[in-house]
Design brief:
Elements: H1 2-10, H2 15-24, H3 27-30, H4 36-39, H5 44-67, E1 80-83, E2 89-91, E3 99-105, H6 110-114, H7 116-126, E4 130-136, H8 141-150, E5 156-159, H9 168-171, E6 179-184, E7 189-194, H10 198-208
Parallel strand pairs: 3-4, 4-5
Antiparallel strand pairs: 1-2, 1-5, 3-6, 6-7
Organism: Neptunitalea chrysea
Keywords: Cytochrome c-type biogenesis, Disulfide bond, Redox-active center
Pfam families: Thioredoxin_8
């Protein structure tokens, strides 16, 4: 593999490099470095097909770079995701709520489900003071909607996407579920909580009482 990578890097003006890149999954990372002659050459159709993947690859890298700054006191990155209503979307930065809770969860996640009663309690307690947003991850639309109905979850719900640079879980560096993020009205991060923890609810009480 190392030899193939080296060959491609050293022969960016040859069609053979495109062939090797296609065969060994190297084309996406090297696309922008190929000469124009190669891009318009024998493998032109393959390269054009790869272009969309290249753009998605660099968008993902851009998001990961942004996510490295997601810390308490930092501004959270914006996102737009599909909501439960047909053809509707939720955009973070258009929200005017004083406090915003982002709950990354999944219909398949036992700890998430076990935490719903407490989340309902706090939603009922503070729904007039805070916006609660559930972000379903690694879910199908059908499983997501069924879980919302089954567990009677009354807050705003959106579903994460891994397409076209919209992977909000990656953007926020979420790797464990549930993960809850508390933001202020300016979208600054006030707290990040992994797993079901009383610290999250104590923070809400401190902010909203």
């Amino acid at each position: 593999m190392e030899k193939n990578t080296t060959y491609v890097q050293e022969h960016l003006d040859q069609d053979l490099s495109v062939y090797i890149g296609l065969s060994y999954g190297l084309l996406t990372k090297q696309y922008t470095k190929f000469s124009e002659e190669v891009k318009q050459g024998l493998f032109q159709s393959f390269i054009k097909h790869t272009k969309a993947n290249v753009e998605q690859y660099y968008q993902q890298k851009k998001e990961e770079a942004k996510a490295s700054d997601l810390k308490i006191g930092y501004k959270a990155p914006d996102f737009t995701l599909s909501a439960t209503e047909d053809y509707s979307f939720f955009n973070l930065y258009t929200s005017n709520s004083e406090i915003i809770v982002l709950d990354f969860w999944g219909s398949w996640c036992s700890p998430c489900i076990s935490g719903f009663p407490k989340m309902k309690e706090y939603y009922n307690k503070y729904q007039d003071k805070a916006l609660f947003v559930g972000i379903a991850c690694n879910d199908t639309k059908d499983a997501w909607l069924k879980a919302i109905k089954k567990h009677e979850l009354p807050w705003t719900h959106v579903i994460n996407s891994t397409k076209n640079g919209k992977n909000v879980a990656a953007l926020y560096k979420v790797s464990q579920y549930p993960t809850k993020v508390i933001l202020d009205k300016d979208k600054n991060v006030l707290g990040i909580y992994v797993g079901e923890t009383e610290d999250f609810y104590k923070k809400l009480d401190t902010l909203l009482k």
